[in-house]
Every structure is written in structure tokens, then in C-alpha cells.
Amino acid sequence: MDHVKTATVAPVAPGRASGAATGDGESGFVVDLPHYSGPLDLLLALIRDEKVDIYDIPVARICQQFIERMHHLKLDEAADYLEMAARLLRIKAQMLLPRPDSEVAWEDPRGELVRRLLEYQQMREVVDVLERLGEDRRNRFGRTYVAASLTPVVQAPLSLSLGELLSAVDRVLRAAERPEIHDVISRPIDVDGFIEVVRAVIALRAVARFRDVVPPGAEPWEVLSGLLALLELARRGELRLDQPRPFASVEIRRELAGEAA
Amino acid sequence: MNSLAKLLEAALFASPRPIPTDELASLDAEASPAAIQSALDELREHYDVDGHAVELVDAGGGWQILTRPEYTEAIERAQVAHRPRRLSPAALETLAIVAYRQPIGRAEIEEIRGVDVGSMLKSLHERGLIDVVGRSEALGRPLLYGTTGAFLEQFALRHLEELPRTDELAVALRVREQETLAEVVGSSGAA
Q1: Structure pTM?
Q2: Could you read off the pLDDT of A100-158 as tens digits, one per residue?
Q3: Cβ separation of A125 and B97 shorter than 8 Å?
């Protein structure tokens, strides 16, 4: 087993521990690795290290190494890597199936994986190019390094003398009219006053109606005060409110029991 | 230096972003494109031959005056200016895929990279290197991404065609063979 030797990457400190604890306790999984940017990257590294032909991958060997390196890097719970491990196992299983006798239909189960690996490797080449170009540009300063699309339109500084500023303030102050100030007269709801009104009304009448308490055309505060006065008196037991049927006028009667008490 | 070259130098110095040649031409209505070009050449030569610490560069969609790399370390050590942060390999991979396959959706990028790229796309978008350029007609109408002008500037590219063509890459030819093979595998494998 030479995987320990080939695995030049030291175990990495956990970047972000997952909620699930790992079996061996020491750490959660590492989401981002400094050395491998994904399962395909790890797989390519294995293929390079093992010096195998990418078109004829010894699946069992590579799969075993892949899983060992996953353990080594504490990647056991990273879904992307697990999925790749499962894929390798599936390919191996497919290759173990007996092939049909006719030579037409058999396709290499590794074909799809090889295509993806090559596609990925191509992107890695582009990454090398971008890295070189980006590093080159990084080392030169322009007037500003703000990306063009993010650059705000630069406003030229104002040219203004103190005299101009003061006369502008003067114009503004003169243009502004005296603000109109409204006096707000408070009209508190007069429940106590209406309690007296209600008492007077029911002293005179056996059965009174709401409009006897609050005359038609009363202001909203009077309607509210009258209503609250009625409810308050009903609560104190001085009168009784009855409504024979829905939407009929409310009948207000002296509460005899209350009066007696 | 002739007066046109000086005018261009002033404009390039004043601008916070690269200026394309046709925008430079609008600085002097009477100057012909050839005159602009020769003025640019003169300015570049002036910087190169007379030993200036800056140089004239055509990159990022236009012309700009940049400091020469040998001064970068001293400038950064003195905290006069800071280099932008280096992109991680994972970010570069994602960016490379977007640059070559644009417009491209998240699922296709993940298919190529073999990992989830949701947060990576978000951070590249925040850095202004990629942008949403449309929606796919596929199921769910996923967003499609493309690279921006800031991408060109960050990698000092004049335009996207300056990136190596895929058939110039080392693995290109074999990919092409394999792609036709994969199509056969893919179509019969799905059945």
C-alpha cells in the first residue's frame, strides 16, 4: 500500500464542522480543501500518481485509493466525494457483469467517467491560463482597481465661494414662507358628563332610546361618549340594555335592582 | 511627444477604467483612427524607451496606464495600494467554465466540476466577474451566467477570444473523440 506515500497532503484542519459528528470523533468534514477542489480533482490526482491510462482506468484499484484518501482527508461525509465513490463502485459492478456474446452492444461503463474527467482536465488547463493572466494583472496597479461596472460616476468637487453659499442660504430663507401653525383643540370624550345625561333621561322615562341620550346630528365625540356612558352604567348595574331583535333600537331601562341597592 | 499623444495620456491618466480606442478617438474629432493609433504607439514607446515606471497596456476592453510589476511589492509593503485578493482554485475553475460555456446554468457547471457551486456563483457575482445573462428554456427556467467586463480587466484580456481555443488545449482532440463516444453511451445508457 503506497497510498500514505502518495498522499502528500497533510490532514487538513476542519474548515467548517458539520452538525453531524463523525464516527472517529476528531473533526467534522472539511468543505473546502486547499489541494483538491472536488472529487474529480482528487480522481485526476490519483490517476496521475498511479500513472494509469485515463482510457483504461483500473476501477477497483482507483476506487480503493479514492476511498482511502477520502478517509485520510476526513472527507467521509462530504456528499460530493461520497457520490463519486458510489459511482466508482457502480462502474466496477457494471464491469463485473457478464458481457453479451455478440460484440455489438457492449459499452465501456467507464466511458461517461472518462468523458467527465477529460472535460474537467480541460477546464484545469484553462484555470492555469487564467491564473497566470490574473497574477500578471494583479501585479500592476492602474489608476484604480475598481472594476469598470462597479465604478460610480465621479462627481467633480463643487466650486463655490463662501459669499455665494451665504447668499444662497439667504435666498432660501427669504423664499420660505412662515409656516402655518394649526392649533389642535383637544376634545376629550366626556363620559362622566353623559353619565349625568343618561341618568337624567332614565329618571324621566321608563324606556329610553339611544337617540334620547345622543341627539341626531351629534358629533362623533358625543356619540362615543354617549355609548361609553351607557355601557359604563350598564356595567355598574344602574340600567339595562335590551335589543328585542337584531338591528332593532336598543331599549334603555332603569335597573330596579341596582337602584334598590 | 505630439499634442495628440499628450491629450491621450491626460485622458488615460484621468480615467479610472480602461478606455477603448473608439472612445479615445472622441477626444479629438479631427484625429483620424490612424493618427490615434500612432499617438498610442508613440505614448507606449515613450514609456518603454524613456524608462518610466508605468506602461501603456491594451487590456480589459481598452487602454490603460499601469505600473510595472517590479514596483508592486514595494507599493504594497508601504500600503500605498493593495492588490486584489487572489481567486481560489475553485473560483477559477467555476470562472473558466462560465467563460468557455457561456451562457451556462448552474446545473451544467456542477456537472463539469462535480461539486455544488451555488455559493461560488454568488460570490463571483458579488465580485462583478459574472452576471446573469438570461434564462434557459429548460425546466424551471434556470438562470444563465456569463462573464463581465470586470472579468476581462481582472485577467487583462482584450476580449474573450484571447483565451486559448479549446482545440489548442492539450486534451482537446481526445475530448472531441470522447464526446461523440459519450453521446452514444449517454443516449443508450439513459434508456
Answers
A1: 0.57
A2: 766 666 677 888 888 888 888 888 888 888 999 888 888 888 876 455 455 555 566 77
A3: no
The 10s digit of each residue's pLDDT in A39-73 is: 888 888 888 888 888 888 888 888 888 888 888 77
> Touching check for A131 and chain B: CB below 8 Å?
yes
E strands, B83-158, in order: 104-105, 130-135, 143-147
User: Which residues lie below 8 Å from residue A157, measured CB to CB, with a gap of 6+?
Assistant: none
* ipTM, interface predicted TM-score of the complex: 0.74
- Cβ separation A116–B114 shorter than 8 A: yes
Q: How far apart are CA B44 and CA B8, in angstroms?
A: 11
Question: Is A143 at the interface with chain B, CB within 8 A?
Answer: yes
- Cα–Cα dist A246/A231, whole Å: 18
Contact B95, B84 (CB under 8 A): no
Contact B145/B112 with Cβ under 8 angstroms? no
Judged by CB atoms within 8 Å, which residues 177-206 of A form the interface with B?
Answer: none
Helix axes A59-72, A39-50, angle to 10 degrees: 120
Check: CB of residue A130 under 8 Å from CB of residue B155.
Answer: yes
In A5-82, where do the E strands start and end? Answer: none
Write down the number of H helices and E strands in chain A. 10, 3
Chain A residues touching residue B57 (CB < 8 angstroms) = 140
Question: Which residues in chain B touch residue A88, judged by CB atoms under 8 angstroms apart?
Answer: none
d(CA B163, CA B157): 8
Contacts of B175 in chain A (CB under 8 A): 115, 118-119, 122
Distance CA A176, CA A173 (A): 5
Task: Check: CB of residue B94 under 8 Å from CB of residue B120.
Answer: yes
- The answer to whether A156 faces chain B, any CB pair under 8 Å, is no
CB contact under 8 A, B181 and A115: yes
Contact B83, B38 (CB under 8 A): no
The whole-number average pLDDT for the span B122-145 is 89
